[in-house]
Each structure stands twice: as structure tokens, then as C-alpha cells.
Amino acid sequence: MFVLDAQPGLTAVLCALDIGVLCSIVLGVSCPLVLASMALIADVESEKSEDVPRCGGPQSSISRTDIWSPVNALSAGIAHEINNPLGIIGQEAQLLKYLLEQEPFASIEASAGCLESVREIVRQVDRCKEIVNKLLSLARQSDPIIQRTDINTIVVEMANLAERQNLVDKDVKIVRSLRRELPLVHTDPPLVRQVILNLINNAIQAIEKKGTVAISTAPAGEWVEIAITDDGCGIPQENMSKIFTPFYSTKPHGTGTGLGLAICRGIVERLGGQLTVGSEVGKCTTFTVRLPVEGPARSR
Amino acid sequence: MEKFRVLIVDDEDDFVETMVKRLKSKGLEAEGVNRGHAALELLRHKEFDVCVLDVRMPGMDGIETLREMKKRDPSLEVIILTGHGSVESGIQGLQLGAYNYVMKPVPFPELLEQIVQAYERKVIEEERRQHRLVHDAPEL
């Protein structure tokens, strides 16, 4: 029961151009297994990030570079072309909605149906805007702006944000294991925030009812590593190579765009780092971000 | 501290007033409004370096305001404030180019640090732009 959440219009365009990057992936499909070891992790700063479970299993190592430059160009093109008409549709729909809520329309019985239709248009336009944003984010090639960055602070901020959200029908515990002696990293803070928040969000969504998301940081030579592990149901091996491909999502139709992980990998590579994943079906998934302490080569 | 310009946008008037006062006491130029539309209107004739923007406001919300701000002036650094955790809108805000997404209540020194870092980023970007202008200029 994996759900492919491709956007039909864009899928058609991509297929027509024979980019050949579309197929289905599984991520975020979840099952209620809880790793017993995870429950033992203290929710405090720890000196030893070795305590935190890392998911082994098959690792994904597909390179993004080969398949991406036509996708990037196309994404930017489509997004720019669609942005303006979308903006106009949105504004006109908002105006229509406003008018239908005022007299004389408000007191006409038939207006209620019209109003509901217009509201749906507004909702769908918002959804399209979100997809366009993501496409632009995916295609953005501007150089990162490098600042000395405390990765632990970013992880704490993003974990706190995720923890404070109201999860409906879910009980997710977020545990942190941050190494105090982590060096400051020359990187682009808002881009790192975007990656971490996206990965935490994915991890939460991979858990169906009750589970744990474990986040750890650790120095690794000239790198800093951030690992995000969930005890959701994992990713089958046959899908490992596809999960960073744009437009794949297993989230219920209409809720995911299938662009989050593609954007994350794009960002991490622009920062001179690597984003890898390891997963065991029925057990866990770990996404690991490695960032160079000295920053991307070009900025040194 | 180098003097730069900060815009506070929040529908809680008390918060705006206090923030503006405290930022001014630190030697910064600060101004505040309580609606997204008012912020965009102000930005039409006045430049700012950093904006602190509440996500939940009546009328135009923070995300929509951010989208418009970035469209008009991509170099304006924006820190989003949120009273409730919303990962989706956090991702959205960062994707639209926000510098950070900060949970309320935030102690003033912490917010000030974020504002200073956001300004540093703007300065780096500006220097880079100048550098490009000089190096990419056609030789006469």
C-alpha cells in the first residue's frame, strides 16, 4: 500500500522530456516497532554520542550530480513560468471569496456552494505555491553564505520546534545526544536549519503511532556529523537509490510533494558535505549529514 | 555595535514597543508595525537590514508577508517568530529564505544575537555583490 504522490502535470512534463528520474519510493511508510535500545537514551546532552543508535543496513550512495542538472534547469524554468499565473489565480480567488462573503451574495442561498468552491481553489493554489517554492529551492544554485556556526545550537532549536508541535494521534519522543566539544563549522546556517528540520520532520512522519527520533552530533576528523534516526518501519533496499529523486513520496496523496529529501541532498552537497541513509526494514532509518568544518572548498 | 536598521512586525503591540525600545537602547535603528501589510507598505519607502516577523497575525500572515518581502528585497534578512511549534511552516519559512525560525518566548539577548548574525550575513552578501561588480565589470 505504498502511495506514489507524484504531481501529474509536472510528472507528464518530466516524462515527456525523457529525464527518466521518476519512479516510486518508500519513505515515511511506517510501522509501530519501537527500538528497545532507544528508550534508554537520556534526553540530555551527552559526552558520548556513541550511545545513540545508528541504523545499519543497506546504505544509499547514489550521486546526485549526474541526473540533476537537467532537472534543476527544468525545475527553475517551470517554477518561474508557473509562479506569475498562479499568483494571479490566487489573488482573483481571494477577491472572489471576499465578494461572496459580502452582500448581496452572502444572503443568496446558492452562494454557499460557490464560496466552498472558491475556498477549494484558494487551498489548491496554496498547495501549488508550496510546490513551486520547493522547486525553486531545489534549483537554487546561489553560493552559500558562510558563517561560523554552532551546529549543536541549530540542532537544539530545530528539535525544540518539532517537539512543541501538536502531533495528532502520535506519541513521538525526541532525544538529543550532542557532543559538547563540537568545533564551530564554516557553513550556511539557514541552509543547515532547513536540512535538519526537514530530516526531523521526515523522521517523525516515518513513525506511525509511537516511537523515538534520536538526534546526535559528533566530530569526525575534518567533518562534523549529524545523525537523525527514527524507529519507523525503514526503507526497503530496492527503494534506497530512489529516495533522493524528486517527486517521490509515500505520504498520503496531497500531503507530501516528494521534494524534501531531494532539496536536502542538494543543499548538503552545495555545502561541500554528504547526506547518506542507512535503513533496516521493520526497525529503523538513519539519515547522516556530514559537513566539512572548514566549509565548502570554493569558499576557503 | 555597528548601527543597522531593524523592523519588528508583530500583532502584539506591547511586544513591538518593548523590542523597539530595547533595540534602540543597544544603539540600533528600530521601528515596529503590527500587520504584514503595514510592514510591506513601510518597506516601499524605507530600507531595513533585518526584520523580525511574527508568523501568526490577523490579515496577511507571516509566511505570506515573508514571501512578498523576499520578492521585493531578497537582501532583507528575516527572522520568523512563532508562538507554537509548526514544523511545516518552519520548513516553508526557511525555504522562502528566512534566516531563522525562532520559538517564542525568546530571551532578548538570544534574539539580539540572532539579529546580529542575520545582519552579518547581509554584510557578507553585500561584500560579495560588490566584489562581483568590480571583478565582472567590463574593462574600459
Key terms:
heterodimer; A: 300 residues; alpha+beta; disordered N terminus; B: alpha/beta; five-stranded parallel sheet; 5 helices; globular
- Largest sheet properties of chain B: 5 strands, parallel
Number of strands of chain A: 8
Helix vs. strand class of chain A: alpha+beta
How large is the count of helical segments of chain B?
Answer: 5
Q: Write the element-wise H/E pattern of chain A from the N-terminal end onward.
A: HEHHEHEEHEEHEE
Main sheet: strand order of chain B: 2-1-3-4-5
User: Rounded to an integer, what's the Rg of chain B over CA atoms?
Assistant: 15 Å
Hey, which two chains have the biggest interface? A-B, 28 and 25 residues
Assembly of the depicted chains: heterodimer
Specify Rg of chain A, calculated over alpha carbons. Answer: 21 Å
Distance between the termini of chain A: 48 Å
Approximate strand percentage of chain B: 15-25%
N-C termini distance of chain B: 39 Å
Low-confidence blocks of residues of chain A: 1-50
Helix content of chain B: 40-55%
From the helix content, strand content and strand pairing of chain B, which structural class follows?
alpha/beta
- Order of neighbouring strands in the sheet with most strands of chain A: 1-7-8-6-5-3
Roughly what fraction of the amino acids of chain A lie in strands? 15-25%
Q: In one word, what is the shape of chain A? A: globular
Count helical runs of chain A.
6
Write down the overall mean pLDDT of chain A: 77
